[in-house]
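Example 9 (inverse folding). The structure is encoded as follows.
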């Protein structure tokens, strides 16, 4: 049986940060990863660009985005805050840039560059990485993990850091194994549900807009009554709706779906009222009165969305010349683009989720060290923790912070 100071299970962002930090503090570290490479999910994060953190440097303001976990997070963020994430990566040759809504990305716009920085840090710390090594059980005597069984034999270490991730996108390796072990060790694990996740619609016509994005406002209704609005980028997919504004509404929509029929109305022109929009359209039509309506719609409506009136207003002859458009049809057109109706059938599952919520109850984790309060030499980091957060770099920041804190703590344990 191989003996180490620190054993890290899982080579995602939280595990890599924990292993690199412990090694930097002089620990002899082994990292066990069941895939044949590191950071599979990290490499697809942010659409392959990796939204590495959210550049809100005021920790108090940042933590407002983490719901009930805010009190728990003060201590870890006092050890490793957003500014430390910038320093960590930029000092290691990966400059970052800040985009809309404070979202920070590598200047190279390449998620695998983030993995590469962490891999180099592991190498420099002489962390032994064992690939294609699936952990099958954590073996316990009293309140200690005494050894870890894997498909490549048994390992033993003074401290064990668990970083096996949550349940979203299981094909990347995150299959939720850690939740099962933690439960059997006596931890309370809130059952995860897909958290930040796209919405499926009953209407199949959205498929023809698959891959197209628009800036707009979505109003969600329950049994025809307005519930809440959200504004931003909306992505049409072959099954329904996605994009940041939709993903961040999914949890609320999920709650509404439990009680009734949920519809969404998309306003493609949220900054203009119906009257002004009608005026604008009339001027445009006047300019192009001898063109086919289809040509004008393509110019007027963003990014291929002219398919919508073409599909939803069959009475509209889009091949006909603009001057033959009737006033009543023009009014219908305006009403439609101010409130494109869709019926939400369900939330998509873990296979499409960006982040799954749920995880280990934070009351069972020591906030200063990420140590389990039940098992003395077990530390828990990253997506395994029950921390709700929106999209925008907030998830990876949790990995950097909790990974760092656990890596430091094992060095002084
Ligand atoms: C499509 C997508 C895009 C995202 N984009 C962003 C973004 O831009 N910004 C952001 O902040 N967050 C983003 N996230 C969320 C972010 O990727 C996760 O929060 C983060 O990857 C969690 O890191 P982790 O280290 O806890 O776990 P994971 O990244 O899930 O890594 C866990 C590792 O453990 C390994 N493992 C699991 N079980 C075992 C076992 N039994 N034995 C050995 N190894 C095991 C897995 O193979 C995996 O390598 C995105 C998520 C998805 C799915």
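The amino acid assigned to each position is listed next.
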């Amino acid at each position: 049986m191989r003996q180490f100071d620190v054993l890290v299970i899982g080579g995602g962002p939280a595990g890599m940060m924990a292993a690199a930090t412990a090694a930097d503090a002089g620990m002899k570290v082994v990292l066990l990863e069941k895939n044949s490479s590191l950071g599979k999910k990290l490499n697809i994060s942010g659409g392959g660009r990796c939204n590495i953190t959210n550049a809100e440097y005021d920790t108090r303001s940042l933590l407002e985005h983490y719901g009930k976990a805010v009190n728990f997070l003060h201590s870890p963020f006092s050890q490793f805050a957003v500014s430390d994430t910038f320093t960590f990566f930029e000092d290691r040759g990966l400059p970052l840039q800040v985009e809309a809504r404070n979202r920070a990305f590598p200047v190279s716009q390449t998620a695998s560059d983030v993995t590469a920085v962490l891999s180099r840090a592991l190498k420099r710390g002489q962390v032994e990485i064992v690939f294609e090594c699936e952990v099958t059980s954590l073996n316990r005597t009293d309140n200690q993990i005494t050894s870890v069984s894997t498909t490549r034999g048994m390992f033993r270490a003074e401290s064990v850091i668990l970083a096996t991730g949550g349940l979203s996108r299981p094909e990347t390796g995150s299959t939720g194994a850690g939740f099962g072990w933690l439960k059997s060790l006596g931890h309370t694990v809130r059952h995860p549900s897909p958290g930040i996740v796209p919405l499926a619609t009953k209407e199949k016509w959205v498929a023809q807009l698959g891959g197209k994005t628009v800036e707009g406002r979505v109003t969600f209704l329950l049994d025809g009554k307005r519930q809440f609005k959200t504004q931003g980028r909306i992505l049409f997919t072959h099954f329904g709706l996605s994009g940041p504004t939709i993903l961040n509404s999914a949890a609320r929509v999920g709650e509404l779906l439990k009680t009734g029929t949920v519809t969404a109305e998309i306003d493609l022109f949220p900054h203009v009222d119906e009257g002004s929009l009608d005026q604008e359209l009339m001027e445009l039509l006047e300019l192009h009165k001898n063109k086919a309506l289809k040509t004008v719609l393509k110019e007027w409506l963003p990014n291929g969305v002219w398919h919508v009136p073409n599909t939803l207003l069959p009475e509209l002859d889009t091949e006909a010349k603009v001057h033959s458009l009737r006033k009543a049809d023009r009014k219908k057109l305006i009403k439609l683009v101010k409130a494109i109706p869709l019926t939400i059938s369900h939330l998509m599952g873990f296979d499409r989720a960006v982040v799954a919520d749920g995880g280990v109850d934070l009351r069972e984790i020591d906030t200063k060290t990420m140590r389990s309060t039940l098992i003395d030499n077990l530390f828990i980091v990253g997506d395994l923790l029950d921390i709700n957060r929106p999209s925008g770099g907030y998830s990876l920041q949790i990995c950097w912070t909790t990974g760092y804190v656990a890596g430091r703590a094992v060095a002084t344990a």
